[in-house]
Amino acid sequence: MENLDKFAEFLPLLIPILVLQLALMIAALVDLAKRERTRGPRWMWVLIILVGEFLGSILYFIVGREE
Fold first, then answer.
1. 0.90 cut: is pTM over it?
2. What string of pLDDT tens digits covers the 67 residues of the chain?
3. What residue spans define the domains of the chain?
4. Cross-strand pairs, 65
């Protein structure tokens, strides 16, 4: 029970972070789907975005998009 109380204590802090992570991931995947050209194969960027969570999405926006 004590561990559950500790988790409940941090839940209000975790929810905004998880929502931000999900929104960033969705934005990166939508951008990837709409973009004609990327640096590297699309399947690689999908994996990086999904597995890399925050860093994967940020990495895609910084490195993966070909302007």
1. no
2. 677 777 778 888 889 999 999 999 999 999 999 998 899 899 999 999 999 888 999 999 999 887 7
3. 2-64
4. 38
